[in-house]
Specification:
Layout: H1 5-8, H2 12-32, H3 42-63, H4 75-78
Helix pairs in contact: 2-3
């Protein structure tokens, strides 16, 4: 998979999305592992598992470039040294 990580890591929206998704995942894992005031029932476990799956999908959305087909960056995007400015 070809992703121009150097440019992605310089992009503020990438970090905002990644921070939110990882924070949500951490809360879900803490809840699923029983860290909390009460025991987890089945509906709590299902909700936590669903939140974990949605977090993984959110992480993919943060990483994948929606302007290209598939999960790779375009050949043009691979040549960028910094995020492309708006025209």
């Amino acid at each position: 998979m070809s992703i121009n990580w150097k440019v992605r890591l310089r992009h503020r929206q990438f970090w905002l999305g990644l921070t939110g998704a990882l924070g949500t995942f951490a809360v879900a894992v803490a809840g699923f592992s029983g860290h909390g005031d009460r025991a987890m029932d089945v509906s709590d476990a299902v909700n936590t598992m669903a939140a974990s799956v949605l977090t993984v999908l959110a992480l993919l959305g943060v990483v994948i470039d929606p302007t290209t087909e598939g999960a790779e960056d375009s050949d043009q995007a691979m040549t960028y040294e910094e995020p492309k400015p708006k025209d």
